[in-house]
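Look over this one:
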Amino acid sequence: MKRSTLTLTLTLLAAGLCQAGAGAAQASPWLVRARVLHLAPANESDPVGGAGASDRLHVSEKTIPDVDVSYFFTPNWAAELVLTVPQKHTVSLDGAAIGTFKHLPPTLSAQYHFLPGATVDPYLGAGVNYTRISQVNLLGGAATLEHHSAGLALQAGADVKIDQHWSVNVDIKKLQIRSNVMIAGSRASRVKVDPLLFGVGVGYRF
């Protein structure tokens, strides 16, 4: 009787340890990354005032920090929210600076991870970007920009795992950001900022 009780106890203990090990091995659905991004605008624009050449308006390039939070619904599928702080850019016309503005571009994407269990896990993503434009100061206040832009976002990247929690991330995004340049209440030009973002950073899986 005592031997049967001991055997049963050891069996239950072993089963409990196996279950605990499986629970510890299961990755958390939350992943946080911190990146440094280089933002390179497409700089396409309509002729100013409807006359002359196109693409005379340029928005400056910028290197910025960002933080993103991802939630994995399955090992392959995740949602990613990218956050940063308002960034200041210089606007130039024919190479001469005409003023500045700030923009805040939070982006929400759905991602598919191809090799979630591998050391190198490539992914593709698509989603939406909403950009809030503020503190516009162009031509001494004579010109302004529309204060919001909504568009598509595409991305490709990879996570390179260091251990159970830490990883290195490389990421490329293409955002659709567009705005009208307004002078005296009329549209003087339409600007396609449409930046390409190159990012490198680290991630932590909880």
In short: The chain has one domain: 28-205.
